[in-house]
Design goal:
Number of helices: 4
Distance between the termini: 19 Å
Helix content: 55-70%
Strand content: under 5%
Number of strands: 0
Shape: elongated
Radius of gyration: 17 Å
């Protein structure tokens, strides 16, 4: 399946990916608080161990991976609008 994205849409999508450092830290903090409640532990090391055990990435690293994947796919796609 191939998707076509115009240049203007591509620019909008890549700009919407951009989150500042404080935005990413806020997402990570909220996610870590959620995990503390989920795993019923206030100990940060225990929560990090659980995240590693269950292979749970922080939102900041997940967003970066998705952005890189999107950009790589866009560069190698046959886009008729460019």
């Amino acid at each position: 399946m191939t998707y076509f994205v115009s240049g203007g849409t591509y620019k909008t999508l890549t700009q919407s990916f951009h989150l500042g450092k404080s935005d990413l830290q806020c997402l990570d903090f909220t996610f870590n608080r959620f995990c503390k409640k989920l795993f019923k532990s206030e100990n940060t090391e225990v929560v990090k161990d659980c995240q590693r055990y269950f292979d749970i990435d922080l939102p900041s690293s997940g967003l970066t991976k998705r952005q890189d994947k999107f950009i790589a796919r866009y560069k190698y796609s046959d886009n008729i609008f460019d």
